[in-house]
Amino acid sequence: MRGPADHRNPYFPFFHLQGRLRGGGESFWHLHALPGREAVLAAMDTARSNGAILENVAFASLDDELFELLQAPENVEALGDALSTAWFDRRLGELRAVVAQASEISRYEHQLRGGPALSARPQSPPA
């Protein structure tokens, strides 16, 4: 069962991958605070905006073991598919299709706006 739409904020996974896993173990994902923002980051229980991340987080790092696993393209694909399904209710292939369609629409729109004027004249039949 999915939560309210606001729980699908794209900053949630970035922020909430840190901390403890469901089984109680340490996470594979570690946020590193900007200098002087360590206490603020440690006190944060959520990140509701891009600003909350940008103002407090310098970078994130992965456990070495996970980093090594992600060097294999098939593992990256499997992880991407799992994340897209969990967070967007769509498999990675579906999201890629949406992006491709949006890109094609954008290209066509750009062509219409910046290309030569379209003519309503019928074309001559081929000779």
Describe this structure in words.
With 127 residues, the chain is mainly alpha-helical. It has one domain. The chain is built from six helices and two strands; from the N terminus they run H-E-H-H-E-H-H-H. It has a two-stranded antiparallel sheet with strand order 1-2. It is extended, with a radius of gyration of 22 Å. The termini are far apart. 5% of the residues are buried.
Features:
single chain; two-stranded antiparallel ribbon; disordered N terminus
What is the 3D form?
extended
Which series of helices and strands comes N to C? HEHHEHHH
Beta-strand percentage range: 5-15%
Question: Gyration radius, to the nearest Å?
Answer: 22 Å
Tally of discrete structural domains: 1
How helical, in percent, are the residues? 40-55%
**pLDDT < 50 stretches:** 1-6
Mean pLDDT: 80
Count of individual beta strands: 2
Q: Give the helix tally.
A: 6
Widest sheet, order of strands:
1-2
The main pleated sheet reads as: 2 strands, antiparallel
Distance between the termini: 63 Å
Assembly state of the chains shown: single chain
What class, by secondary structure content?
Answer: mainly alpha
